[in-house]
Amino acid sequence: MMDKSQFPIPNSQINLSKNLSTIVFIVAIFIAITTLLSFGVLNPYWIQIIQFAGIMTISALGLNLIYGYTGQFSLGHAAFYGLGAYSSSLITKTLHNLGFASFIIGLIVAIVLVAIIALLIGLPILRLKSDYLGIATLGFGIIVKVLFDNADAVIPAMGGSRGMLGIPKFTVFPLTYLFVIAATIVIRNFVFSDIGRACISIREDDIAAESVGVDTTKYKTMGFVFGSVFAGVAGVLYAHLYSFLHPSNFDFLKSIDVLLIVVLGGLGSISGTIIAAITWTFLLEGLRVILPPQILDWRLVIYPLVLIIVMLIRPMGIGSGMEFRFLRTQNDYTDKKK
Amino acid sequence: MKIFYIIYSMSYFLQQLINGLQLGFVYALIALGYTMVYGIVRLINFAHGDVFMVGAYLGFYALSLYHLPFPFAILFAMTGCAVIGITIEKMAYRPLRNAPRISALITAMGVSLFLEYFTSLKFVFGPNYLAYPTPFKVCTYQIGGVCVSNVQILVFSVAIILLVLLQFIVQKTKTGIAMRAVSYDKDTAKLMGINVDFITSFTFGLGSALAGAGGVLYGIAYPQIYPFMGIMPGLKAFVAAVLGGIGSIPGAMIGALIMGTVETMCSAYISSTMRDAIAFSILIIVLLVKPTGIMGKMETEKV
Questions:
Q1: Which of A197, B16, B72, B146 is the 20 to 30 A CA-CA neighbour of B121?
Q2: How close B186 comes to chain A (CA, Å)?
Q3: How far apart are CA B74 and CA B165, in angstroms?
Q4: Is the pLDDT of residue B33 over 60?
């Protein structure tokens, strides 16, 4: 840990009690959605989509920490997402008598497991840089997916390529909402802590960071482990939302989806990531509703076109360089254009 | 006991080696496109695997619909892919040349998804698996206990001809010298009067044409095609390019042959379901031991 007096950060942590308008805003959204739900305006299908948007937000916030803030290119995010999902589901399925307590145990086990694996993988491969790191993490993601495919040979309950069935449904809207809020605050406070500043300095220039005494290996690994844990938590929620897991839900393309969200949202922007995750989910689902059935096949043709056009118009992402007011600090250095 | 006999028998090993090299040569044709494009614009062209898929389909239509003879079918696929590659470069990548590299990478992924889902539409290629036609009767020859089919001979010969041709273009022609110059130092190349835009387009066209040829050969050797067939071979060819040292043409060939052989040997001796895991574990190990790949050159870091 760096000496705090060396890098003073005034008013850097979010203090919700001083931020009344933010609390009102958070509660208002929650009440609005639950009201719409109880009056039947939103059917169960849509509430599932809303929750999925929340899960993608949590996962994308994790990748934003790894790539957007620490600058470590990762193409294997879905592996940690899957590890969280499978490990917690194994716990909740075996301990189903305990009710919600099993979910808590599953969550903790998933977090610990993902953190350990991320540490073991991160320590060696984070020595690699940019594209090479991307390829190594991509390889890790594919290895994990193949292991999921063949897991039933060792643990029959995991179902292998047939999929894992009958996971108890614990993920409800208030829970997901709580997790999204918590994840946002934790990421925000992490980024503006001294650890976060060290991570940002590595992204800006790792050699320069090292020359002023930042232990780059330590902070790179820290960012990687922390971001991966977010993916793991998202996986836990995902598993207990759909109650069915299949290895194809955690393949290479799922890592790409999260990367798309982070880049579209703008690297190193929490607000951008949240907006992009929600827009991405609703774009994909909304096209399903808007498009007439004859051209429903076009849904996944339109989506990459939108992606390409957004990138051509705004190569830095939609939310790059901006942040919601409550996520900022007094002297916000991420806010300024370089 | 029979199993042990098979495992230790030499001819079984040689047989698998030939199968592996067959796959390796197809990977080599794809990997060269990755490595050349990376050398010139420093971009992982994720859409390359899908250009390979389009090549396979173009070959399919040339063979089964228009009944073209094989050499014309492969030329048709190569031309079509070259046009697609150049179009992608002009429309999607050129506007982003001065943007952050990640933007171009995301665009490449977008192009990849677009090609996959657009070609899945019913009026394009359709979402179904198609059986690939063989332009000639398949027969196998026994050479010292090892079976070699004429398909394998075809794959080997076409791939080797194309690789030699590519070496000739890159090493001997004026365009090839310009390509190497641009890949070495783009700004200096521009000062020497090289048309960098043309060279970039040319490289995309050349790489895509090779991928198209690879697609046709893949279709004939493993006769089943579908719009998502490009993802895995594309990734593996890319891994092969990295293994050999991305940016290096001989490296890509060697990496691809290693990748194909390792993959086939894994399915033959260990487990066919685990072969991807083993192939990618080798990749990670190679990257950790020699991060620039087998033939890659160290780039000095500038502070």
A1: B72
A2: 20
A3: 15
A4: yes
Q: Check which CATH number belongs to the domain holding B19 and give it.
A: 1.10.3470
ipTM computed for the complex? 0.83
Q: Does a structural domain hold residue B65? A: yes
For residue B214, the model assigns a pLDDT of 93
Whether residue B283 and residue A127 make contact (CB cut-off 8 A), yes or no, is no
Domain coverage including residue B217: 15-288
Residue B8 inside a domain? The answer is: no
Q: Tell me the pLDDT tens digit for each residue of A16-35.
A: 556 677 788 888 888 888 88
Residue with tokens 């043409």: B249
CB contact under 8 A, A136 and B118: no
Give B105→chain A minimum CA distance, Å.
10
Cα A135–Cα A137–Cα A143 angle in degrees, nearest 5: 105
> Does residue B282 lie in a domain region?
yes
Mean pLDDT for all residues in chain B: 86
| Distance of residue B78 Cα from the nearest chain A Cα, in angstroms | 25
8 A C-beta contact, residue A13 and residue A189: yes
The token pair at B301 is 């870091």
What local confidence, expressed as pLDDT, does residue A18 receive? 60
Residues of chain A under the 50 pLDDT cut: 1-11, 330-338
Residue among B100, B246, B291 whose CB faces A316 most closely: B100
**Contact criterion met (CB < 8 Å) for A305 and B235:** no
Domain assignment present for B297: no
Say if CB A327 and CB A271 are below 8 A apart. yes
Domain boundaries along the sequence of chain A: 43-259
